[in-house]
Description:
- It is a multi-pass membrane protein.
- 63% of the residues lie in helices and 6% in strands.
- It contains 17 helices and six strands.
- The chain has helices at 2-10, 15-27, 49-55, 59-69, 98-104, 108-111, 119-154, 186-216, 218-223, 229-250, 257-269, 282-317, 332-343, 359-391, 395-413, 445-474, 479-508; strands spanning 70-76, 79-85, 158-160, 174-176, 424-425, 435-442.
- The strands form two sheets. It has a four-stranded antiparallel sheet with strand order 1-2-6-5. Strands 3-4 form a two-stranded antiparallel sheet.
- A hairpin with a 2-residue loop joins β1 and β2 (79-85).
- α1 runs parallel beside α3 (49-55) and α7 runs antiparallel to α11 (257-269).
- Mean pLDDT is 75; it is low at 477-495.
Amino acid sequence: xxxxxxxxxxxxxxxxxxxxxxxxxxxxxxxxxxxxxxxxxxxxxxxxxxxxxxxxxxxxxxxxxxxxxxxxxxxxxxxxxxxxxxxxxxxxxxxxxxxxxxxxxxxxxxxxxxxxxxxxxxxxxxxxxxxxxxxxxxxxxxxxxxxxxxxxxxxxxxxxxxxxxxxxxxxxxxxxxxxxxxxxxxxxxxxxxxxxxxxxxxxxxxxxxxxxxxxxxxxxxxxxxxxxxxxxxxxxxxxxxxxxxxxxxxxxxxxxxxxxxxxxxxxxxxxxxxxxxxxxxxxxxxxxxxxxxxxxxxxxxxxxxxxxxxxxxxxxxxxxxxxxxxxxxxxxxxxxxxxxxxxxxxxxxxxxxxxxxxxxxxxxxxxxxxxxxxxxxxxxxxxxxxxxxxxxxxxxxxxxxxxxxxxxxxxxxxxxxxxxxxxxxxxxxxxxxxxxxxxxxxxxxxxxxxxxxxxxxxxxxxxxxxxxxxxxxxxxxxxxxxxxxxxxxxxxxxxxxxxxxxxxxxxxx
Length: 509
């Protein structure tokens, strides 16, 4: 019952009342310093009151709980050394990490906790000491891996075509080799080494990704931008395409160019995932994700309808014409592709002035140019501009959350010997087996003095404001006659307030 009340207090809108009641309930807890403390009991979602405060973005309760966990070691003038308890904060040996819970929640208030002490200092320590070097090394290793895969695709086994052409439009001169013919020369053996590296890399990707999907859940794992959702889809699809290509190569099945092409595009697009480790590029990748999975996905539905309609019209118009004179619409798939290019203004309207074109082609193309180029493309630009304005206010905040998610991901996947625990053990200070983060805080005395001066000004302004209100209440019945005097009264009171404030400053100096 006491633990349930603690969880309810974390969700209370009245933060001051909740903090006082929280302390009152803990004062009656007989095991508040032991493993059976009410603060360490989790709810049905596995959240303790401390983790619940982080997930809900309750910064007041979070700071209150952190003040209870800190220990002042020594103070010397403006310098103060403080130890913050990292229990439930550090992701080390935590099945449900506090940092991972914050970055995976959809509440923007929760991400503000990443800028509070000691979370900000802990993340900075982890990222600068281990996260950034390991992430840069991983990015370099992935780029070299993609270069190896690309070279294997460029020099894939091909042989000259021996069969006769069945059509004048048939332009194929090379075909895929059989498996027995693919690995005979020294160059083929070098390519085989690269292909083995590519397949092993694809298997490693699946082995690393599948456990996280099962642990976090597919909806959260693929749906959260901060956790890298779209990039996880890209890299898993890439690994599957590599395995499909391998099966087609081993079975000597024609058409391996299809999964190989998809794998090349997806593999190189996944390089953008590593831009999150750099402050210059990270926020822009967030902008790209928001536009692709927000505006562009909705726009593609409208674009598909327009392309299907006009491509069908173009195909019907040129169905009776000779394809050698105007071959952009000689069959339906080519009509779809040509209409798509026209939609994006990649090519101009196809025309052959040596022959007579159907009259309906000019009418349909005129309507297509008005709807596609002038209307829909400008609509897409306006939508993207609106998304850019909305995301620009929080892209830096999202980027910092991505850095935290990347740090937690690396800490989980790397061996313990490569990522030692952050902080200091409490035994060095007689605080038990818990781990603490040591932070040196500097208190500026000039800043404190100016705060006192500000409070003095506020107090004088408050007194004069209350006096002015009393006088205005007395003369409410003849307000229209007292308007000039009221104005003079406010000026005199503000002048007196300023005079008293400057007197306080002069006296303190």
